[in-house]
Design goal:
Layout lengths: L1 H6 L18 H12 L7 H23 L10 H11 L4 E5 L6 H12 L7 E5 L4 H13 L26 E4 L30 H10 L11 E7 L10 H10 L3 E6 L12 E7 L17 E6 L5 E2 L5 E2 L13 H13 L14 E5 H6 L22 H32 L5
Parallel strand pairs: 1-2, 1-3, 3-4, 5-7
Antiparallel strand pairs: 4-6, 5-6, 7-10, 8-9
Helix pairs in contact: 4-5, 4-9
Amino acid sequence: MYAIERDNPKLKGKLPRDYARRGIDPERLGGLIDQIASIAIGTDKARAKDVLGRVYEYFLGKFAAAEGKLGGEFFTPRSVVRLLVEMIEPYEGRVFDPCCGSGGMFVQSEKFVQAHGGSKRDISIFGQESNPTTWRLAHMNLAIRGIEANLGEQPANSFVRDLHPDLKADYILANPPFNVSDWSGQLLRDDVRWKFDVPPVGNANYAWIQHFIHHLAPPNGRGGGIAGFVMANGSLSSNTGGEGDIRKNIIEADLVDCIVAMPPQLFLTTGIPVCLWFVNRDKTGKNIKGGGRDRRTKTLFIDAREIGRMETRVLRYLTGRDEYPLPPDSDIGRIVRTYHAWRGEGDAGQYEDVPGFCKSTDLKEIRKRGYVLTPGRYIDPVVVKDDGEPFDDKMQRLTAELQEHFAEANQLQTRIKSNLEALGYGR
């Protein structure tokens, strides 16, 4: 560990050196080191970094699952990270995550740039993390992949001690902790970041949202900053503690670009329904590579609650999370293609509202609905086609089928009782 820090000055003081005091069997630790050492480095260093990075990410996922709720502090599911990155397309510029955990957003951003023919030198990475252990995990995660990043000189709370106060980022990617009540809000009543009203002391959701907006690059000649982040569904409709007024002010400022309602069971550590917010400082289309559609006063709503596949009994994933290039017919590909078509990107196709899935809405409609951003309020329901069978005929047919099932059930019940009696039970 000393040697690694010596050769990588940015890791100085960040690597653990206390394995001997952790009760780990020396033979197991040695075997693990031998396994990792057996990964062929050869001349293909890029491939070796990718393999080591995937091993590291695998362990992060396993640790997060084992840690329960604490795991959510440092690990965001790959499905969610990949979707966020593909949606906002961080080709070049400053990428910021003020609650960066183990750095998964940055890793996926680098993969995105490289998959589209760019270089990781095209993006500058800035982050912040309050948990000291997680902050070290992020440094190691990025170092393994050779990613340069400014995560601050030490771990720090983004609200109380903003390590990048003057940063105006082109892209913000984040998964902040949900519904945090002890965020020191009482100490920050007059903070400069609360441009849309003071967030409630008992919930940090709208403090995070305003923190993100504060750090987005303002509109300029080539557009402005865009943020994609995870939020609890309560953020879409809550009026507690003035949150409704803050949401109204953000909507009236024409910052909300897109809202995506996500399916359940995506996260290892929480069953809270979540959504994705996309906030854009410039909806003219200038910050889209190659140019895009002017979307001022427009917001796109996507309902993705029914997509995804079960990886285990309790965990869902979105197809396309590990595939490069992204398959357009995958779960992630469908959401991304819809958003990009709505933004007017030339290779994404023509946008159309799809009942049960997506709807483009204007500011007047959002005002009518009391500034609630729940996608289900706006998206048209799926119209069930009439099969042409008269109602009376259908009821007679279904009733006859039901009687047949009842008769079959009675026969089965009689057979089961008979079998039990033959075995000496049931009398």
